[in-house]
Write a structure and sequence with these properties.
Strand content: 25-35%
Number of helices: 3
Shape: elongated
Structural class: alpha+beta
CATH topology of one domain: Immunoglobulin-like
Strand order of the largest sheet: 1-2-7-6
Number of strands: 9
Radius of gyration: 26 Å
Helix content: 10-25%
């Protein structure tokens, strides 16, 4: 077994700082200092992880410092939108800010999933600043095919069924005339 494999994370020597990341961070701080209103006005996007299970999808969204009352989750077809607001932390008077990296103000994140979500069965919970969404797939429903009444059509249909699923945006399928 090699020595690095036996070392714990704390035992490993730290990597030298990434100069590009440091430069980007410093440039962002300068811009924030020169134009504070621009950063405050622009909505930000919280980081998220998405994974698929047999039943659907699970999304974890980083929302540290955001009250659950300030978060709204909506599902339309295959699009999940998380939006809300993180308030500015009030500092004691006389405080001098040396670095402020956490975004405040309005945020929004829309995630497009490859399948339609069953909005009626979505579960949402927040724990330790992480919002977890459980998004089950919407099951296709079977539509029975009826035999046409006598005289309507010379053809007789069998006793089959059609499987139908709404398009991702929950609108009528292309080419279908709305009634």
């Amino acid at each position: 077994m090699d020595e690095d494999a036996r070392m714990t994370e704390e035992d490993r020597p730290s990597r030298p700082p990434d100069p590009l990341r440091s430069l980007t961070s410093e440039l962002q701080l300068m811009l924030d200092h020169l134009f504070p209103q621009a950063r405050a006005a622009a909505p930000w996007e919280p980081a998220c992880d998405i994974y698929e299970t047999a039943e659907g999808f699970v999304v974890h969204v980083e929302l540290a410092g955001v009250s659950r009352e300030d978060v709204n989750v909506s599902v339309t077809g295959n699009v999940v939108t998380i939006e809300g607001r993180r308030s500015v932390v009030q500092l004691p008077s006389g405080s001098i800010i040396h670095r402020r990296e956490r975004r405040v103000g309005r945020f929004q994140r829309s995630l497009v999933l490859p399948v339609v979500v069953d909005a009626d069965r979505v579960d949402a919970a927040v724990q330790e600043g992480v919002l977890t969404l459980v998004l089950p797939r919407r099951e296709a429903r079977r539509i029975p095919i009826q035999e046409a009444p006598a005289g309507d059509d010379d053809r007789k249909e069998g006793t089959g069924s059609v499987t139908a699923e709404a398009p991702p945006n929950d609108r009528e399928a292309p080419g279908k005339d709305p009634e």
